[in-house]
């Protein structure tokens, strides 16, 4: 039986549940694979584990992959995409929504340090002067938005929407994908050497993973409960995990098939990376299913 080690970008929460379903239901085993998922953590660059030889597949952000290639000369290949649209976006209050970047003029936006450069570039791309928007740090705490001390915050949109709702505030969210940054996320990335040597196993992994995601979405409330504690973390409530699982669904599903990459998606990523001075060859993208 072939063994594949998959490095995640974050902890074992519902963001990755489709892979855990594939393992729990024997979909990987049915195609002769033993798959080990390694959780990530803050500050991790998942694709670096490929270069270190500690993982076979890494789930990555496209701009991070481009920067790694620029900085290391690594020979990498993107074989699939989990999120067809990155969940990164701006969350605001429904009673005072930020519906486009222009509506940030004269407002305060809370932004994580890791996303600051992207947000500043998007504001400039939208024709806003940097001084037109007050950027303040974001520590993954929505209370300033709940208390109206900021107009919006940048994050994966699911968690702050849930937390606003718990506080009795109706949230409004806009994806950066639809406002100048047409990026997928959790790209399945391998080294060119792994692609050459283990192509059949990678195809089988993608197809079994697709099956896991499809099974999960038959009832988004079922597997968060069944897999809670092993392998899903228990640091969030079950209700939170169920909410997140359902909210991620439209960002994962695509008419082309889960884990696929369409020509249009690839073209958008390549054009964006060129615009932000992280150019990559289109041949980096080698969709296998």
From TrEMBL:
Homodimer. It comes from Devosia insulae DS-56. SUPFAM superfamilies: Periplasmic binding protein-like II (SSF53850). It catalyses: N(6)-(pyridoxal phosphate)-L-lysyl-[4-amino-5-hydroxymethyl-2-methylpyrimidine phosphate synthase] + L-histidyl-[4-amino-5-hydroxymethyl-2-methylpyrimidine phosphate synthase] + 2 Fe(3+) + 4 H2O = L-lysyl-[4-amino-5-hydroxymethyl-2-methylpyrimidine phosphate synthase] + (2S)-2-amino-5-hydroxy-4-oxopentanoyl-[4-amino-5-hydroxymethyl-2-methylpyrimidine phosphate synthase] + 4-amino-2-methyl-5-(phosphooxymethyl)pyrimidine + 3-oxopropanoate + 2 Fe(2+) + 2 H(+). Keywords: Iron, Metal-binding, Pyridoxal phosphate, Thiamine biosynthesis, Transferase. This is Thiamine pyrimidine synthase. The lineage of its organism: Bacteria, Pseudomonadati, Pseudomonadota, Alphaproteobacteria, Hyphomicrobiales. Residues 15-220 form the SsuA/THI5-like domain. Pfam families: NMT1 (PF09084). Responsible for the formation of the pyrimidine heterocycle in the thiamine biosynthesis pathway. Catalyzes the formation of hydroxymethylpyrimidine phosphate (HMP-P) from histidine and pyridoxal phosphate (PLP). The protein uses PLP and the active site histidine to form HMP-P, generating an inactive enzyme. The enzyme can only undergo a single turnover, which suggests it is a suicide enzyme. Belongs to the NMT1/THI5 family. GO terms for biological process: thiamine biosynthetic process. The keyword Iron applies. One of its GO terms (molecular function) is metal ion binding. Pathway: Cofactor biosynthesis; thiamine diphosphate biosynthesis.
């Amino acid at each position: 039986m072939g063994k594949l080690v998959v490095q995640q970008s974050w902890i074992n929460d519902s963001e990755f549940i489709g892979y855990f379903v594939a393992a729990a239901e024997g979909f990987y085993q049915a195609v002769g694979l033993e798959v080990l998922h390694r959780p990530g953590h803050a500050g991790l660059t998942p694709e670096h584990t490929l270069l270190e030889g500690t993982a076979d597949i890494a789930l990555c952000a496209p701009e991070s992959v481009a920067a790694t290639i620029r900085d290391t000369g690594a020979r990498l290949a993107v074989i699939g995409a989990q999120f067809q649209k990155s969940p990164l976006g701006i969350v605001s209050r429904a009673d005072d929504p930020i519906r486009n970047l222009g509506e940030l003029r004269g407002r305060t936006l809370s932004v994580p340090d890791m996303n600051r450069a992207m947000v500043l570039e998007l504001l400039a791309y939208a024709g806003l002067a940097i001084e037109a928007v007050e950027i303040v740090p974001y520590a993954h705490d929505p209370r300033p938005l709940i208390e109206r001390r900021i107009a919006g915050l940048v994050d994966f949109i699911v968690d702050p929407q849930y937390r606003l709702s718990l506080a009795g505030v109706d949230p409004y969210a806009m994806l950066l994908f639809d406002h100048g940054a047409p990026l997928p996320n959790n790209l399945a990335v391998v080294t060119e050497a792994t692609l050459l040597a283990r192509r059949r196993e990678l195809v089988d992994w993608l197809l079994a993973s697709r099956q896991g995601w499809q099974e999960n979405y038959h009832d988004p409330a079922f597997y968060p409960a069944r897999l809670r504690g092993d392998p899903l973390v228990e640091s969030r409530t079950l209700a939170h995990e169920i909410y997140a699982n359902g909210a991620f669904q439209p960002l994962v599903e695509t008419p082309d098939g889960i884990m696929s990459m369409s020509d249009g998606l690839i073209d958008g990523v390549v054009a964006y990376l060129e615009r932000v001075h992280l150019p990559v060859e289109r041949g980096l993208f080698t969709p296998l299913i």
